[in-house]
Amino acid sequence: MIIINSGAYVIPELQAEYGKIPPCMLPLGNKRLLEHQIVAIRETLDDINIVVSLPESYELSLGDNLLIETAGVKVVRVPDGFTLAESVLYVLNTQDDYQIEHVVRLMHGDTFIKGIPADADVIGVSTTSDDYGWEYEASDADDKLIWCGFFSFSSPRLLTQSLSLARGNFVEAIRRYGQKTPLQGKLVGAWNDLGHVNTYFKSRASITTQRAFNSLVIADGLVTKKGQPNRKIQAEARWFKALPPALKRYTPQLIDYTFDDQGGTFYCLEYLSLSPLNEVFVHGRNPAFFWKKVFDIFQDLFARMRHALPADLDRQALANDAEALYGAKTRRRLEETAAQGLIDPQAPFTYAGKPMPSLAELAETCIDKVSGLPIIDSVLHGDVCFSNVLYDSRNETIKILDPRGMTEAGDFSIFGDQKYDLAKLAHSVIGLYDLIIAGRYELLEDASGSVTLDFHIDARLQQIQRSFMGTQFAASVSVKQIMPCVVLLFISMIPLHADRPDRQLAMRANAYRIFLSYCHEEISA
C-alpha cells in the first residue's frame, strides 16, 4: 500500500493562483499532479494499492471522481486541520488488517518523483542547492541530501506506534521508527517539490506542453521558440516587435529575433513563472469573482487594442481577411476533415436526440450569421485561447503568447477583426476547449446513434460562464452574437487533431452543442 498524503490545502501563495485545493490536485503539464504521481508509482510498483488522503471539506468534481475511479485509487477523507503525522495516522487506522500486515509507503501530496525506490525501510533523498526548510539526511559544504517526500516501512505497526508517540510531529515519528528499524537514505531518479511557489514554477518549466510543429526551449530565464512552418515563427516574432507601446505591458519582453545556421527563424522571450489560464480554469477552484476580475482585464485589453490603430489603416484589407477567416478557412478545414476519413462533413448528425444538419451545412449557416455582424478594427492577437494567456496574480494582469501575426492570405500583419479574438476567448470559457484537451468530458452515444457531449460542469463554472456572457467586451457586438464564430472555430479545429480521433469526435459534437445552446434561436429568428 502507498498513501499519497494530501489531507491539507496548498499554501496561501498557491491558493492565490489556483484556489483552495489539496496539493495532489495542483496542475502540472495540463494534468493533475495526482495523475503524474499515479503513473510514476505504477512504473515501479504496478499492482500496489494506492490511497490518497484529501481534506474532509474538499469536494471532488465529477471529473476528479472519474479520474480516481479509473485509476483504482481509494480516497480517505481526513478532518481539516490535522498535521501531517495526524493525517497519516488517521489513514492507517482506516485500513484493514491485511493492508497493515504489509509494507506501507508514503508519498507527500506535493511531491513528484520519477524512479521510486521499491525497497522497504527507505527514506527517499535527493540533492538540492535550495533551502526551503527541508529535513536533511546528510549535508556537507558542497552538497545536501534532503528528504524528498517518499518513505517506506516494513513494520506498519511500528510506524503507527511512532506516529502516536510523536504527538503530531512527522519528522520525530520517522526518527523514532529509525531508532528501532534502521532506515536507509536512497536517491530517487528525479524529484520535484511543488509545495513552494518557487519550486512549483521551477517544476512547471521542466514539463512543457507544446504542439508537434514547434519547439520550445526554456533555459537561463528565456523561452526560445522555433519550428515549422518557418513563416509562422517569423510572423509571431514580427507581431511582438511591431506591437504598439501601449500594449507591450500585456506580453513578455521580446529579447531576440534572428535566423539559425540552417535559415530557420527563432525568437526569444523572457520566461515568466506564471500560470497559464487553461490550467487555472480546468484544474483550479478559483471563485467566480476571480474570473470576473480576469474578464475585466480582457475587457481593458480589447479596448486598448481597438484604440491602437494607425491613421492609414487599410480597413478593406481587414474586412477581406475577416471574410477569409470565417468563410474560406472553415471550408478548407472541412475539406481536410473529409480527406482524413474519420468524419464525413456532408453526413447528417443527431445531437442530444435532435436531428441536425451536416457539418458543412452547419458551417454555412454560421458563416452567413457572422457575415451580418460589423467588423471591429483592432490590433489582433488571433489565438486568445486560455493556453496562450498567462495570469500574473501579483500584479493582477495577463501576458499573451503565440500570436497569429499574419493574415489568412499569408501577409504579415498585427491587425484584424476583434470578433475573432473574442470568439477565441469564448471557445475556452463557453466552448470549454481546454476541458476537451485535458480529457475532462464524456462523449455518449445511444443505440439510435444520437451523440451527447457532457462536461459535468458544476454551479461554480456555470456562474463563471454567466459572468462571461454578461461582460460587454466590445461596444458593437455581444458575446452571444459571436457564438456562431465559436461554432466555426470548433469545426476548423477538427482536422488539426488527426493524431487524436477522440478529440476530433468531441470537437464535432461540441460544435453542435454550442449551436443548439447559444445560436439556434438567434439564427432561426
Describe the overall structure.
With 525 residues, the chain is an alpha+beta fold. It has 3 domains: 2-206, Alpha-Beta Complex (Spore Coat Polysaccharide Biosynthesis Protein SpsA, Chain A); 214-270; 275-524, Alpha-Beta Complex (Aminoglycoside 3'-phosphotransferase, Chain: A, domain 2). Strand 4 (50-55), helix 3 (62-71) and strand 5 (74-78) form a beta-alpha-beta unit. It is globular and about 80 Å long. The N and C termini lie far apart (61 Å).
Which characteristics define this entry?
four-stranded antiparallel β-sheet, eight-stranded mixed β-sheet, 525 residues, 21% strand, Aminoglycoside 3'-phosphotransferase, Chain: A, domain 2, alpha+beta, Spore Coat Polysaccharide Biosynthesis Protein SpsA, Chain A
